[in-house]
Specification:
The chain is an alpha+beta fold. Helix content is about 35%, strand content about 25%.
């Protein structure tokens, strides 16, 4: 593994596949620090407010966002930037490399003192993630991946669950999707809500969940890191009709999605295509 000095200040074209594991390690350290910031700030005196669509945001969201923007820029200068809590600078569209960040995914859970919130960071190259870290500080669960090297949880390799069957499969996501799928597969196990979408999808990568759904209007910052994790763990995250996601588009928003291990994902897509009216 090359030391960080091998890429810091270097032209972006020098960031090739051999550097990705070292970048992953640097990003992992950054999200751990970000998690410590968020945990220190949690409590009754924390200020919060609502933004568009009645979505909550807090001082901690902003503090973590600012920390990560500075830290990631130091790790790899010159990248574009897209974050839930930053102004969307459209110059990102011309960037060959882009950081996509959700400083606190699951702010409602964070403010309520629950455990299922996370910090999500992905490095995207030409529309697809190549480095990813999702950190759930309360659970001390750090998911990390680099393209072509597999996925890990707290440095131990992880894999999505094998098989194509739905009987006994553990699924999480919006209730309408789970109810529809349960009508088709009565033995499906509906798991409790996971407030952080990034964490919900990461649990597919680790095998804690077999299936996860995301509703329409999820964003790049919810998905990019989890997408790479699921892929590197042998699964897939796509639209309900099986289309792979592209990141860093003008409007960074997506339609309904499904994630699962490779065989089960293929079976689900085939099933949903045959039941389009039910999943519309």
């Amino acid at each position: 593994m090359r030391p960080p000095s091998a890429w810091r200040g270097s032209p972006l074209r020098a960031v090739d596949e051999t550097l990705l594991p070292a970048l992953r390690a640097e990003v992992a350290a950054a999200v751990r620090e970000a998690g410590a910031i968020a945990r220190r700030m949690a409590g009754a005196t924390l200020k919060s407010w609502t933004k568009a669509h009645d979505s909550p945001v807090s001082e901690a969201d902003i503090a973590v966002d600012e920390f990560l923007r500075d830290r990631l820029a130091a790790i790899l200068p010159g990248c574009g930037w897209l974050s839930e809590e930053s102004h969307d600078d459209q110059t990102r569209l011309a960037a060959s490399l882009l950081w996509i960040v959700d400083p606190i995914d699951g702010t409602r859970a964070y403010l309520a003192g629950l455990a299922d919130w996370s910090i999500s960071v992905a490095l995207v190259r030409q529309g697809r993630p190549v480095v990813a870290c999702i950190y759930a500080p309360v659970e001390e669960a750090l998911f990390a991946a680099a393209a072509g090297t597999g996925a890990c949880l707290n440095d131990s390799p992880i894999a999505a669950t094998p098989g194509a069957g739905l009987a006994g499969a553990r699924a999480a996501g919006p209730k309408p999707y789970l109810k529809t799928l349960t009508r088709i597969a009565p033995d499906l196990v509906s798991e409790p809500k996971v407030h952080s979408l990034a964490l919900r999808l990461a649990r597919v990568a680790s095998g804690r969940l077999d299936i996860a759904f995301a509703s329409t209007d999820s964003h790049d910052w919810d998905l990019a890191a989890a997408d790479l994790l699921v892929h590197e763990a042998g699964g897939a995250l796509t639209t309900l009709d099986g289309r792979v996601l592209t990141y860093n588009r003008t409007v960074p928003r997506h339609s309904a999605l499904v994630a699962a291990g490779g065989e089960r994902h293929a079976a689900l897509v085939e099933l949903m295509q045959g039941q389009k009216h039910a999943f519309a």
